[in-house]
Structure prediction request, 231 residues.
Amino acid sequence: MKLLQPRCYLCDMPIDNQQPFLCLLCQQELPYLAIPHCRSCALPQRKHQQLCNECQELPPRWQHLITCMSYTLECQYLIKQYKFSQQPQLHLLFSQLLSRSISNKVIQHNYSLPNALIAIPLHKKRLAKRGYNQAQLLAQDLAKKLQIPLIAEKQFIRAKNTKAQAQQTATERSHNMHNAFHVSNAITAKHVAIIDDVVTTGETMKAACETLFTAGIERIDIWCIARTLAD
Ligand SMILES: [Zn+2]
Ligand SMILES: [Zn+2]
Prediction:
């Protein structure tokens, strides 16, 4: 519970409004992804929109990855508060930042918005424990802000209660995510954006893409709050 005087989530300075959760200085100093980056993996690149060597050689299953921050310590702290410390209200901060990155991409790079949004689902056990799906809250805000339909939660579900990816090897991760997702009803949209909090190795996204392509979706983009800058 926050006390009456709201405080900045990062430096604890008193702030005037409960939103946007950060003082002006901390807002300005967030690790925004300003450097030119590869359009498919968001890793630094000499020119915007250019594919990095890795993505040229082995293109990811998605086309564009849009994110607003790199996963630095400040960003990790905020996202951990959001996911693990019962601070679901932070979706308002993240959706504001992410919608700004998406609008910039539309204006500066002619990015075409998807026909529908879909959130990475949580397994029902994890959802029951946490009480909310952080990706779903974000997707709901973005759907409203950008006026894009949101695919119902029950249509895309997590069939496997997968272990945390961080402590696993690449092979284990890939095996772990195999058949992790399931589409329960037909999805008519052809171009969708998948929404998640952080993209690290991309294994979760790869598995989600496979399932959605099998369900008839033709183009997938990824929208996430943050991206780890080194794999
Ligand atoms: Zn601050
Ligand atoms: Zn790339």
